[in-house]
From TrEMBL:
Source organism (scientific name): Azospirillum lipoferum
A Pfam family this chain is assigned to: ProQ
Comp. bias intervals (Basic and acidic residues): 174-184
Region (Disordered): 1-22, 155-184
GO biological process: post-transcriptional regulation of gene expression
InterPro entries: ProQ, ProQ/FinO, ProQ/FinO_sf
The protein, known as: ProQ/FinO domain-containing protein
Length: 184
């Protein structure tokens, strides 16, 4: 009958090395680990693993697709157009309506974008609106059916303070109607 014994303690370890000659005792890098793992595979296992490894390498070396090149911005990390519209409406209530307001729009003075850039407007985020943001807000304000309805030949245009600043010409009103006809 054989007696069960406890494994030897660290002090009682045999003097001879028990490491596998193929596998190094200390593997430090991933390359060493992969080389050691590859050397333990049989020829058939290597034939099966090679196409899989090749696909993995090809996937890592591929060019980034559209999604990787142009990631979508984080939802809370952008200044919205409506926020900029609210900032303009707060700064110039006689000229701009709040977004989604039921009030009718009035035609804006030609060159009002330059006046806004020269005046300087602070957005809801506390930063001054850049010229691109101002242009974007004015473009958005002037698009839509409410503004188109206000473009009647001879109607009065307004400046930032709500004062009369010219009138809508027949060519501007006709140009707007023509654009409506081509988009529909």
């Amino acid at each position: 009958m054989k007696m069960l014994t406890a494994p030897p303690l660290a002090d009682e370890a045999p003097a001879t090395s028990t490491t596998d000659p193929i596998q190094p005792a200390v593997v430090t890098t991933i390359d060493d680990q992969l080389t050691a793992a590859w050397s333990r595979l049989s020829i058939d296992q290597k034939r099966k693993a090679l196409p899989i490894l090749q696909r993995m390498v090809d996937h890592q070396n591929r060019k980034p697709g559209i999604a990787e090149r142009f990631p979508k911005p984080a939802p809370g990390n952008r200044t919205g157009l409506r926020a900029d519209r609210r900032a303009l409406a707060a700064a110039f209530p006689a000229c701009f309506n709040q977004p989604k307001s039921k009030a009718p729009k009035r035609p804006l003075k030609i060159g009002i974008t330059a006046d806004l850039i020269a005046h300087g407007v602070t957005g809801e985020d506390g930063q001054p609106l850049s010229h691109k943001r101002i242009e974007r807000v004015v473009r958005d304000y002037c698009l839509g059916t409410k503004y188109d309805a206000a473009l009647i030949p001879g109607s009065t245009r307004i400046d930032l303070d709500g004062n009369p600043a010219g009138s809508v010409s027949a060519s501007h009103a006709a140009g707007r109607e023509r654009k409506e006809g081509t988009e529909a």
